[in-house]
Amino acid sequence: MLKYILKRIGFMIVTLFVITVTTFYLMHTVPGDPLGKMAQRNLPPQVRANFEAKYGLNEPVHKQLFMFLKNFFTDGDLGESIIYPGMKVTSTIKKNAPISAKIGFSSLVVGVFIGILFGIIAALNRNRWPDYVIIFLAIVGVTVPSFVLAPLLQYVFSVKLKLLPAYGWGSKLSWVLPMIALSFGTIATYARYMRSSVLEVINSDYILTAEAKGVSYGGVIRKHVLRNAIIPSLTILGGQISGIFAGSFVIEKIFSIPGLGFYLVKSVSDMDFPMIVGTTVFFGFLFLVAQLVVDILYGIVDPRIKLSED
Fold first, then answer.
1. CATH for 98-301?
2. Its pTM surpasses 0.90
C-alpha cells in the first residue's frame, strides 16, 4: 500500500506539472488583452509598461512559465491578481476555499448518504411505490438545475415561511439553503447509480449461495450487497470532491457567498492569468488527491481489489 501511494504521488506531481504548463500556454493562445480592463482607464504608456514588467507580460511565454514555477516551488507563491492588484492568489485561495468547502463538502456528504439510501430502498422495493417515488425524485433532481432550484428554495423558506435567510454568509443558518440546492442533484445521481448497482448485485450467484446457506436477509444486504454495490458509486466520488469548489459558482452567486468559485469563473472572463493558473493548479491538485483517496477506498470496501504495482 505504501509503495502504491508513493508511486501515485509521483504521478500526481508529473500530472500537476503538465496541467500547469498546458494551462499556461493555452492562456496565451486566447485572443485578448490581460490588461484590457486597466486599458479602459486610459493608462499612460509608461504605466502600462510598468504593469507589463511587473507581471512579466513583456517576456516570452517560456520565461513567464519559468518564473512562475520558480516562485511556486521556492516560496509557494502563485502570483498576484492582475484585476485586483495587491491580491495574492495564494491568499485568495486560503481565504475563500474554506467557504466553498464548507458548503460543498456538507452538500456532498448529505447528497451521497441520502442518495445511496434512496437507491437501496428503490432497488429493494422494485416496481412498488417507494421505487416509483424515488425514480421520480431522481429524474427531477437530474433535470432541474441548481440555479432554478435555489430561487424556489429562497421563495418558499425565506419569503413565505421566513425560516431561513435568503442570502448572505456568516450566520449558522446561512449555509442551509445553499447546501440543499447543491445536494439535490447529488442525491439524484447516487440514487440512480445505487439502484442499478444493487439490482445487478442482488441477482448474482453468490447472493443466492449466501441465502441458501441460511444467512439472514439483513446480513445478505449488509455484508454482500452493499459492499459490492457501492463500488460504482465510489468511482464518481473523486470528480465530485474537486467539483465542490468549482461547481458551486452559481449557488455562491445566487446566495451572495464569497467562495472560491466566484474568482475562478471571473478570472477566465477577465483574462486574469495568475488567478487562472493558481486556481487551476489548486483544483487539479484536489482532483488528483480525490482520485487517490477513491482508489484507496476501493481496497477498503472490497478486499478483492489489491493496490499493488501489478
1. 1.10.3720.10
2. no
